[in-house]
Structure formats: structure tokens, C-alpha cells
Amino acid sequence: MWAILSILVENKPGILFKVTHLFRARNFNIDSISVGVTENPDYSKMTITTYGDEKQVDQIVKQLDKMIDTVKVEHLDEHKTVFRELSIFKIKLSNANDSMEINKLANAYGGKVHDVKKDSIMVELTATPDQIKAFEELAKPFGIIDVARTGVAALQRSGSS
Amino acid sequence: MNNMENMIGAKALMTAMEKEGVKQVFGLPGGANLPMYDEFARCNIRHILARHEQSAAHMADGFGRVSRKPGVCFATSGPGATNILTGIATAQADSAPMVAVTGQVSVAMIGKDAFQESDIIGMANPVVKYAFQPRDAAEIPEVVKKGFFIAETGRPGPVLIDIPKDVQQNEAEMVFPDEFKIQGYHPWSDPDIVNVEKAIDMLLHSQKPVILAGGGAIISSAFAELQAVAETLMLPVVTTFKGKGAFPENHPLSLGPIGMHGHAEANKIMTEADCVLAIGTRFSDRSVGTFEEFEKGLKIIHMDVDPAEIGKNQTAQLAVVGDVRVSLRIMVKLLLQKAIKKTEETPWVKHVKETKAYWQENLKLHPGEMGAAKILRKLRELLPKESIITTEVGQHQMWASLFYDVIQPGTFFSSTGLGTMGWGFPAAIGAKVARPDVPVVDIAGDGSFAMTENSLATAVLEDIPVIVFVLNNFTLGMVAQWQRTFYDRRMIGVDQGKCPDYVKLAQSYGAQGIRAQSMDELDKAIRDALSSDVATVIDIPIDPEEDVLPFVAPGTSLKEMILPS
Ligand SMILES: Cc1ncc(C[n+]2csc(CCOP(=O)(O)OP(=O)(O)O)c2C)c(N)n1
């Protein structure tokens, strides 16, 4: 099971280390991670995605909850959550049509095109990890020169808890 | 504000600790904690000098386990701080309340690889319950208050307070708060009464129920409650090794510890049970063997103060989260209300008693006069029941598990989580400081004692008369046993020779050293030690080839117990 965990922590130095260390020490895995300060500068929010069966995810949540620096830990329901990841792809342009094709592809996924050069183009995509993966598959034949991805950021929709 | 006072950080530390009721600390000074040490001259806290920071931590640990209040240890920065780590990790593994205070280089030098700088916060984080590093002297009073609170509440554990030297020296307006808030810390939850009711139901509806009591039962002093539940429902009681003595081991329903070196009867009954009331245990692999095999066909009711323990190693059918003493109290009350009391011996209890009698009669003991069982039974016979026992790690520890019956609950302590050789003796010193009124005995092996034997200096000079009971097989016995059993008798790195002579060693520190080579000599040695007012080492030479049996080999299940042939 793929799980999205939302972790509200005190905004103090060293906490990212402690959280990630917990995963390592407890033999859990981090699939992606993103951290940013919240509207209240005393807190940061981490979003961690991970894989595990129900029992494992439950253990991860409990262990995180036990940490003194974590204020709130939530296992978000994927279906009631808006979650996005930002990715930037640098893609090779080999022939005249490539640029147009990639533009179309980017449009189809709601992406933005940047830095169009003679032999490369950059696409910025904000989407779910699945969509990014799908885009990646389609872009592969052109030749992916480089890629950078953030972790997932996620918020639960209103009215669901 | 009237409770504001101008003082330096070091003084604020002492004042705050006095407010926490600290009467003594165990430590060793150095450049980076000298401002704090200087304050010992001006406060009412006794400083007990250890000869190694690891021992200082074990002393604090022993004090904490016995008194249930955090024991305090002090070390300087760098190597002092790294030395103390083993002691901190040991306390963490056994949920012992402790506050460790280390000196650190000045704030401006942090990160510059300064002399005796070590990133102790980074190193200790995985093995502490929490770590603080105040960067401003004014933070100290609140840090101390929070630190003690975290160390002793919920599931207890070690807290590290690392104080840069300039923070110790700087003056500030100190406010000693009575109240504080730690947002992410919720040490208490009230047990769910409905679940306690369900637990009673499950126990009543099972054919072969047992109680498995772990260290949590001892930490929360749930002794009377545990006994009441066991007697009312007529439940046989096994313990983990850490839970040894949570229930009087001379009680007819007691079977003793399960596990790798558990009692044969306890392991047998545990594997036959269909429902277990597990109290304050993490289901350590040393206790339950392979996890999958253990839970097969077993309904588990898990009571624990730490919600993260539920489902960590074993799947529980029912969980009761909360202090186990409170949970058991509720159970006792419900049993009374519902007028539930078993008066007739069930076939299961009859079977349990027969199993126990069988194994106790058929135990194959070492034939010699100075076999481990006889030695430990002699100790038991001569010690008052309220005596406190600590142990080191090895065969002697497991013989203590098998042959030393704890009669008064909560008087037996061992490094069971981390398995730290060298823990028992300094921990005994800490225990004796907490309870000067009762005899304190460290059951030791020669290898373990060698690790912290220099604590004899502390015991003698600080007038803390403990007894060290060395079962001396001149070898790292437990490792030797594994080499005999699993490595075709290739004995590598286990021979301890005949050096040192522990009697002379003790005497050179000004302690009493006695060698006991026969039962008569042992009898006299124990009596002499008990009536002595200085620390005593009793050196008891034993057969280097004596094995601890029964034995559940690592990675196997309790069913596969190896028995004496
Ligand atoms: C600090 C530390 N190092 C190594 C070990 C591994 N170990 C476990 S038992 C043991 C031998 C203990 O020897 P001794 O204290 O003489 O006790 P005995 O087994 O002979 O009774 C060793 C080396 C350990 N538990 N702790």
C-alpha cells in the first residue's frame, strides 16, 4: 500500500533529521518527502509517502506520533486528499518535430514549457506521482537528459476527516 | 515577576535540579562542565565520583530503576559525552528514567571541530527519549523542568541535556516555571474500560489462559493488582526476563520467565496457552522466539502505556492502552463488581501445577558442589527477601533467572534490553544510594565485572557498601557456551585466564575480598558480606564448562527448547 503521511512538527533545527532517522532506524522506507513551514512559523509540515502493508503503516504512524517533536501525525486517505508533486524534466530535441510533440504532451498533462533550446527543452509539471510517471514514460522515447522531483505535498479536502 | 532571579546558567541548573528533588548525581568532571562542577560547592546536591562516565550513567540508571525518579549523571564534552552513551542506550532499552547532563564547547565553537567537541546530540538522538541543547542560559530552568518530566512520565527513558560552556557561564534573569507545555507529548491516556471488560471476557472464555508480565508491570509497580487478577481468575503467571519478579516467584501460580533462557515449565505452558494477558511487554525476540510461531493459535490481550508497542512485534486481538497498573486496577474493580472469582482449580491450572512440579523435579543440575544452581539458591536462602539484585550479562544472569527466586516483587534488575556487560555493579551502587536500608547484590560474571570493576573505588570512597557476587568461570562463559554449541568447540577470544585475582583486586581498593570454594565458605562469605559496612567482592570459582540449560536457540521458537541431556 502506498501511504501519504502528513506530519506537523515544531519548526526547530534537527527535526527533519530525527524524523528521517526514525524511518531508517525502524527499517521503514521513505518514498518521497517534502517539508515546508506552515502559515504559523512555529510549525513545519512534512509530507512523507511510503509503502507498507496496513500493519506497517500503522506502526510508522504510531512511532511518529510518539516523537516528542511531532504535534500531529495523519495518515491521509488518498481519495479525500489533494496531493501534488512538482517535477522538472529536461528532454532532448533530436529532430524538428520533437519540440511540437513535447509541447503537446506537456499541454495534455497541464505542464509548462521552459528554456527551449536548439537541442533541449524543459517541462515543468505539477501533478500526482502517477501522472508524472505516465508523462515520464511518454517522454522517454525523446530522451530524458535530467529530471528533478520534489516530494509530494498534500492537504485533506474540507468536510472529510 | 517575583520569582525572577539573576544568576549564571550553571547555578540555574543546580537550582532547578534541587527543585526536582535531586539529592545526588553521579559523574566525572572535565573542562567543559567545570562551571557546573563549581556549583556543587554551593548547593545541596552530593556529587558521587565515578571512574568512568559509562559507570556514572549505569549508577544513575540503577538509582532511577529503584527509586522511579530520574537518576542524574554528569560528563564533560567530547569523550566524556561519548563514554556516557552506552549508559544512556542501556537506560533507553530498558525504559529507565535518567537525566544525563553533558558539557559542550561554547556556542561559537560548535561545528568548528573544537577541542573535545562531539556532536553528542546527533549521536544520542536515536537512544534518548529526548535531547536538549539550550543555547541561552535563560532556557535552562525550563529545559530542566521539561527534561525531568519527560524522563519519568509515560514510558520512562533517558533525557540528555547538553549545555555549552558559555551557556553555563552566562548570566540571565532566570524564571523557574511551575508550568510548561510540550505540545507533542501525551504520556497518559486513560485505559478504555470497555476494552478491560472485553479482556475479562476473553480470559473467561478461553481454556488455557496465562498472564505474561513484562518490565512495564515492574516500572508501574503493578504488583498487588497483578496478583489480585491472577488469584481471582486463577491465571498462571509467566514473565519476560525483564518482568522477572513482577509476581512472587514462590507463588503456586508463578512459572518464572519465558524465553531463550526461560524456565522449561514457563516455556512449555506458554506454548500450550490459548489466550495471553500481556502486561507491559514489547514481546522481545529473546522472550518469545520467532514472532510468527509465538502468535499462532494464541489470542493476545496487550496492555501497555506505549501505544506504539501495540502491533509492533505481535498482533493483539485486543489492546488496552494506558498505565498498566491503572488498567489492572480497573480490571480488579470490575471483577469485584461482577463478583467473578474462580474458586475451583480448573483442569488447566492443575496441568500447570503438574508441569511445574515435573520440571522442578527433573531439572538436571551440575553434579559438583559448586554448581550454579546451588550457589544461587544459597544466596537466596541467606538474603532477606527485600534485598535488591542487579545482574551483569552472561550465563550468571541466566542462572539468576533460573535459580534465584524473586519473592518481593520489584527487587530484581538487569540489563535485558541492550544486554550491557558492566551494567550490574555500577547499577548496584546507584540502587544502594536509592535504598541504603536493604542489601544490594550484583550477580556478576568475571568478564562483566572486569568491565566496570573500577567502580570499587566509588563504592569504597563514597561509602556505598554493595556486594558483588562473582560466579567466576575464568571465561566469557555465555560466548563460550555458544562456541561449544554452535561453533564446534572452537574457543576463540573467551579465555579470561586467572587474572586478575578478584580478592586481591577488591582489597587493593579497600574493599573486602572473599574467595568461596565450598558451600561452607560461601555460606560464611555471604554472611560476612551482609554484616560488613564496606563493599564486598565474593569470588566463587566455578566449572568453566557448565552450560545454561534449558536454552531456546536464536531464531527458533519456544517449542524448540534445548533441554539438558
Ligand atoms: C559490552 C558487551 N560486550 C560484549 C557482549 C557479548 N557477551 C554477552 S555474554 C558475554 C560473556 C559474559 O561473560 P561473563 O561476564 O564472564 O559471564 P558468564 O557468561 O561467564 O557468566 C559476552 C562477551 C555484551 N553483552 N556486552
From TrEMBL, chain B:
It is an enzyme of class 2 (transferase). It holds the Pfam family TPP_enzyme_C. Residues 9-121 form the Thiamine pyrophosphate enzyme N-terminal TPP-binding domain. Its EC number is 2.2.1.6. GO terms for biological process: isoleucine biosynthetic process; L-valine biosynthetic process; sulfur compound biosynthetic process. Residues 393-540 form the Thiamine pyrophosphate enzyme TPP-binding domain. One of its GO terms (molecular function) is thiamine pyrophosphate binding. The keyword Kinase does not apply. GO terms for cellular component: acetolactate synthase complex. Residues 196-329 form the Thiamine pyrophosphate enzyme central domain. Its cofactor is Mg(2+); thiamine diphosphate. Pathway: Amino-acid biosynthesis; L-isoleucine biosynthesis; L-isoleucine from 2-oxobutanoate: step 1/4; Amino-acid biosynthesis; L-valine biosynthesis; L-valine from pyruvate: step 1/4. InterPro entries: Acetolactate_synth_lsu, AHAS_TPP, DHS-like_NAD/FAD-binding_dom, THDP-binding, Thiamin_PyroP_enz_cen_dom, Thiamin_PyroP_enz_TPP-bd_dom, TPP-bd_CS, TPP_enz. SUPFAM superfamilies: DHS-like NAD/FAD-binding domain, Thiamin diphosphate-binding fold (THDP-binding). CDD domains: TPP_AHAS (cd02015), TPP_PYR_POX_like (cd07035). This is Acetolactate synthase. It comes from Nitrosopumilus piranensis. The lineage of its organism: Archaea, Nitrososphaerota, Nitrososphaeria, Nitrosopumilales, Nitrosopumilaceae.
